[in-house]
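User: structure tokens for this one?
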Amino acid sequence: MKIALAQLNYQIGNFELNTKKIIESLEKGKAAGADLVVFAELALCGYPPRDFLEFDEFIELCEQSAQEIAAHTQDIACIIGLPVKNPQVAGKDLFNAAYFIEKGEVKAVIKKALLPNYDIFDEYRYFEPALTFDCVEFMGHKIAVTICEDLWNINDNPLYVSNPMDELIKQQPSLMINIAASPFSYLHDDERVEILAGNAKQYQLPLLYVNQVGAQTEIIFDGGSLAFDQAGNLLDEMAYFKEDFKVYEFDGKGLVGLQQIEHQALPDVAQIHDALILGIQDYFKKSGFSKAVLGLSGGIDSAIVCALACRALGPENVMAVLMPSKYSTDHSIDDAMDLVNNIGCMHEVIPIKDAADAFDQMMAPVFKDLPFNVTEENIQARCRGIIVMAMSNKFGYIVLNTSNKSECAVGYGTLYGDMCGAIGVIGDVYKTQIFQLARYINKDREIIPENTIVKPPSAELRPDQKDSDSLPDYDQLDRILQLYIEQRQSSRAIIAQGFDEALVRKVIKMVNNAEFKRYQTPPILRVSPKAFGMGRRMPLTGKYLS
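Assistant:
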């Protein structure tokens, strides 16, 4: 039996596109002599469909697409993920399911049992968990087909005495197949290989695993579909961050013609780079846009975003707007122009001094003799926000937000100013990682100017301003933030690791107090295990210093 894994980039709700991709893969499978083609979790509608699932028409369109696909299975079978209706009166209206289709008919329906309900996942909102499990029979073989979490959540779900595989193994299958929508984080690939290898070894069965690839707004899927032997040895690893298609031969006992390989783990910074490129590309392509605009300050954050955008969209589709104020230094303008010259993107220089002065004069009767403070600093940032939004409206550009995760965490940004944008490109990348990313981008030649990398970070909203005037050293700040945000450790636990108590409490208070700002930021491309946005839900008016 020859089994093909189709690792595809779907678009949520684009049934025409998704169906076309699936049918093309079926034809590709036929040409390659495959007997079965396996597609990802909720492939027909894209993952995560969220509240689209509450519309009957959406579910009906899934079913119509499945029937259209079934018409192409006279000479080949497929496994394909989709939501299906729950015929029972009790429980949720839907199952997260998969069809096994052969000879134009749905021969089996596989239903997901262990529905994730953490971080970005919210499947219990929509789906009823499965309670019964049956192997799929095909070409004389029994196949244990599971959906994503059903092979991940090993014996830790209190609703079940055992996992689906513990039930399926009683039916003596000879092969496991897992279809998934497993989101990317730069720590996830190693964990994924380890968990899946553990399952293959535990149940002593070869395992084929297919994952989605592509970005759905902030969530990025990295692909990396996998094949294991019955001892848990990795036999093959499909491409990361792009579509792929491979055929494997199963002889009834194992996957033939493959040798054990080592997981080719990329450095974190390389994974982050590739994920952000894919995130930008898919946000624009799937939203129907092609051109981006951003404010280019001469600082490292906007330089990184500009460089990534040029790689994702092409420099001819990126507009960098230099908006110097009266506090901007000559070297910042020079650094920004050096970047523009290095990558060849479009650019405009629009000074904001006159606009900021006009606001100061307009507000003078109200502010009277009150001293210069953050108010006037924020007016400058909001002048810049007005300009990039004006460029967006006039020319159809989409604004890229350039705030990093360290700034997002502690509220070091201006609402309706530098925090504006349609998508946050580096909002899940800490400042210390930003410097690593700059070096990675420059690995072949200088793109980010060296002076941009080595100079002290500054917002340049007042004379001689430095980030360090308001924030702790980034090395310390980011370590505290990672412990609090990603690892969800309390202030006491962080202090116990040797950090200064006053600093820890100050940082955590800044994070909690900035929640209202983050609530109004654009969606942020998720590259870490815990990003701001849908995976981290905090009350705006709560009081908790941890």
